[in-house]
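Hi again,

Forgot to attach this to my earlier email, sorry! This is the prediction with FE2/S2 (inorganic) cluster bound. I've pasted everything inline since the attachment limit keeps bouncing my files.
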Amino acid sequence: MGSTDDAATGATPPTSGRLQLRVREVIRETADAASVVFEAPDGGFNYRPGQFITVGAHLADGLAPRCYSLSSAPGHDPHPAITVKRVDGGRVSNWLVDNAAPGMSVDVIAPTGAFTPRDWTHDFVVVAAGSGITPAMSIIKTALMTHDNAVTLIYANRDEQSVIFSDTLATLQETYPSRFVVQHWLESERGLPTAAGIGSLIAAIDDAAAYLCGPTPFMDVAHEALEAAGLPTGRIHRELFYSLTTNPFAAAAATTPAAPVSPGRPAESGARVTVEIEGETHEVEWPRDAILLDVLLDNGIEAPYVCREGNCGGCEFILTEGEVEMRVNDTLDDFDLRRGARLACQSVPVTDTVAISYDS
Ligand SMILES: Cc1cc2nc3c(=O)[nH]c(=O)nc-3n(C[C@H](O)[C@H](O)[C@H](O)COP(=O)(O)OP(=O)(O)OC[C@H]3O[C@@H](n4cnc5c(N)ncnc54)[C@H](O)[C@@H]3O)c2cc1C
Ligand code: FES
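Structure tokens for the complex follow:
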């Protein structure tokens, strides 16, 4: 089955920085969801299945940035796409569903995020609710079309009319009958999903990796069901949708030093960090009480970020030497931490020398 190398997805190196994407097509998926398909920019548009872009919506009262997962699959779909579901009273989701049209240009921050398989040697259990299908769709298509994994999808929706991608899922089932199982959970028929109910839909779990996307209570019951079925927590990955409260399109804010992590350690004993980014190596001083992302931006190094709150994984780097401490980590799981992933927007140094890479 599959490989540990995701280069086959056309995903390395990822596109970086800010760019403008031109809308090619808008597909009405359900009454309240639409896919916005973009022209692939000159020079390509690289991303990993499960990653998201940040859209800067220019609304009448200013710029509103929001994250949207790519529902297209790299290496398979020629044009990158996001799928947006209306949120009651939501500013950007409704604006996009109502106004996105072919020819329109959209400001975007390049794909990022840690909700992406790094290892395609396992089978997958994907558990999604509502618009949580978007990153799941990219992962499922890649697992089926680029690799040869078996995938079980458990997909919860209010009712049959609200199922996004129902035709695509049915076609994939017909095309891959021995490798793709879809279990729909319709609240109109079965009520809210429960751990026991989800557990009853999980068949083979041996050696699988699970990807969960939906509201927190939904992911909690899915997690419980997967653990009860014998899947270790380290194999269960989650993506939570929320609206950004910071503006990653604004110029880097003035840095605010964090409180010292180790009060006993003299502040003057700064660390040094060696940074590999976009094929270049930089070495900079890293004050003990400073957040790595701030230090890098202050030194003119264009490190990626989105939320600056430890939620999105958009500032992920790989630690290659030394150790850091993260103040908040709401996105990297045990597997990510073991492969050396850390969040620049939350890291302070622990060791005197640290080496990191954005290119790994
Ligand atoms: C990594 C990631 C990936 C994502 N991928 C997707 C995706 O693929 N598809 C998708 O549809 N969404 C996705 N999201 C969610 C998306 O970013 C937005 O959060 C979503 O579209 C809602 O944004 P909005 O501007 O429409 O709503 P907001 O305007 O942000 O409002 C959200 C809710 O808060 C309420 N609200 C807003 N302001 C107030 C206030 N002042 N007081 C009280 N209540 C208030 C609104 O009524 C609404 O119910 C993703 C989020 C993340 C973090
Ligand atoms: S920028 Fe979102 S976790 Fe760091």
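The longest strand covers residues 18-30. The chain has three domains: 6-112, 123-239, 271-357.

That should be everything now.

G.
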